[in-house]
Structures are given as C-alpha cells and as structure tokens.
Amino acid sequence: MNNRVAVSGATGRLGRLVCEVVEQHPSFELVARLRSTSGADEGADADIMIDVSRPDASPDIVDTALARGQQVIVGTSGWSAELLDALATKLAKTPERGVIVVPNFSLGSVLGTALARIAAPYFDAVEIVEAHHPGKVDSPSGTAVRTAEVMAAARGGRPIDAPFAEQPARGELIAGIPVHSLRLAGVVAKQEVRFGGPGEVLTVTHDTHSNEAYRAGVRAALEAITEARGLTVGLDALLGLNGIAVDGGER
Prior knowledge:
Blueprint: E1 3-8, H1 13-24, E2 28-34, E3 48-51, H2 58-67, E4 71-74, H3 81-92, E5 98-101, H4 107-119, E6 125-132, H5 142-154, E7 172-174, E8 177-183, E9 189-197, E10 200-208, H6 215-225, E11 230-233, H7 235-239
Parallel strand pairs: 1-2, 1-3, 3-4, 4-5, 5-11, 6-8
Antiparallel strand pairs: 6-9, 7-8, 9-10
C-alpha cells in the first residue's frame, strides 16, 4: 500500500516540483494539492503532509498535520531556532510522530553549509551574502540562517569579528554573523560564505541554476519521512554529514 501524500503550497515553483517527485515515486501517492484557498479538511486523509507554502502559514499547517497524526516534511523558510525548539518540545510529547525540516533541498547547498561549518573555527571574520529571485518573500533565506547558526555552533561560542555591526548596511546579524540579502531578477538562488584572515579570503559559493537542483533532496526527505521520529533539521542529517567534525575527521 502506497503512502498517501498531501502537498501544501502545491501551486508554487517548489510545490510543483514536489508534486512531480511524489507522483514519480512508486511508494507514494499524491492525494491532495493544497493552496491558500483549499478547505480545512482537504488533505486530512493523507499519511504525510509536505509543506512548501509561506513562512506566516507554515507553523499552523504543521500543527494541524501533527494533530491529525500525519508525518510532516517542511520545506518552507522562516523556521527560526525558537520555532524549531517549540516544535521539538511538542514532538517530545508524541514520540511516534516525525517532522523533517529542510532549509534547502539542494544537495550542493547542504554540502556548502557543511564546508562552511568546517571552516568556521579557523576564521574570525565571517559574512554571508545570499541572493534569490524577486518572488522570495523572506529574508534572510532559511539556508543563510541555518548556515550562520551551524557556523556559530562550530565556533563554540567564540564571537565573530563584525565591526560596525550596528550600521544597517552591514547586514542583519544572525548568530553574530552579518547576513546580506539580495532579491534580483535573473537569479534562482546563490549563497556565498566569505571568511577573512590575515592576507587571505576563503569563499564557499553555491549557485542554483534551476529548481532541478532540489529534486534529489526532495526524494531523499520523502523516503526518510516514513521512519522519522522527533525533529530532524536539514538534509545533512539524512546524508550523514553531521558526522563530519570541524577538524575534517570523523566523530
């Protein structure tokens, strides 16, 4: 018997791709394509809810899905550390349920964040520049927020050297790291993490040229969700990248 899937935000550019991935997978069945005008009960009979809607709607969609007993994949940006902590607390009360939150479904982006985490302890000057298409409603991007947070954690509380951070043009501080957001026509998605040290600069860059970059990651999350329990954040956890230590060795 196939797992029944509902997709919230199904009419968006990522939502349409997610629907394709579900329809092409032999173990899953797409039973509902949800949009903002969908009825409250649409998708209620699904086993899995995939939310790729809007940041302001996503928490309520996840809460409703969990109340129905559904497994959940979240590909919507805007899930802050505070929201994730609250979600983890809620899931602790229902250990049979699982939620996978994916800031970015691109495998290259996930690897880029992993490389930035490795480099973070070795440079005190770190900044992020991210660019997306004009239709992206949130900034900084969820990927940039996630990257800043994992780099700050890798530094073990050692502060970033970010001079004049109080000036608006210096970007928004996320976990102490300046993040600069661009919204430009002609761009799909791009992130640069720039590390500065005496006499050198290291840049970790990832470019997304089309939504096809997200297909493999969507499939990986889909295949993992049936057995997921509790809260999983990021494709890196599914790909085993969390085991890469900041010194380049294996934990």
